[in-house]
């Protein structure tokens, strides 16, 4: 690890707590990041929505207000309930003020917020900041990143995402997300199909349902409902007819589900910045049939257990899933090879040393 333990302030997004069951891939990634840094001897202060793990010994200023919908039927992942941002932004400002006041005791800010405020304040905090770009170029984030590019390091989760930001005048290095090999274990495979992730329109689970019905195999769905109206219209009508919804699962149960499946279906209908579910499935040995969009192809790489098909083509997805579930779904030799290849690229243990080097360099740059 780096020459000395550091005190690191990790800023999470404003929407969901960092805890299991994870609200989505971004929250899972931040959760793993905090655990990994603490295990390697660093002091981590997590600034996140109240109800998050890891906040017991942190300052009260690092507890951000929870999102509360007056009517859960209105809940989405793309909007906030009335009045929420009017409470959340001042709370985030108070957390940044805490960092500025305690700049002599904090070595680095590891920023994963999807709000521009941390970037806007970066040069005035007195603490070096590393920011990871998890999304396509959002206009307000682009403006903030352009203004602060010399006051911190910017990283993108894929070369695809880095290129998108570069087209908007923001340069970022590539550091892919990583997964915990000890938690995503090799599974035995099975006959059924699995889909897991946020249940929102851009994740396209309704096309996974259509593809599964074409194969005649049962589809098991796990994840948080991020858009209630979408779920009610496009998923609920098919439940019980070869489609099971298991709800949001904590990671051990989710890993068992994925590892006990014949093939994972990955169906984004947007330019997916990374595609963590692909790496997670492959780590259990389960092959993946996926729409080829955004960073999905990068995560797939040259993996023999992945078939990419045109975005939105449920028939091609069904054919790919049927082939993979039959050829590799239960063959332990194939599954072990799939896992080994995935961990060589995405293991959290491998990424830890890279990350500490980045942190050391960011600190050196700030005071050069």
TrEMBL record:
Keywords, sorted A to Z: Glycosyltransferase, Transferase
Gene Ontology molecular-function annotations: glycosyltransferase activity
Domain annotation Glycosyltransferase subfamily 4-like N-terminal: ranges: 24-182
Pfam family name, one: Glycos_transf_1
Annotated GO biological process: carbohydrate derivative biosynthetic process
Positions of the Glycosyl transferase family domain: 194-340
Domain of life of the source: Bacteria
Protein's name according to its UniProt entry: Glycosyl transferase family 1
Lineage summary: Bacteria, Bacillati, Actinomycetota, Actinomycetes, Micromonosporales
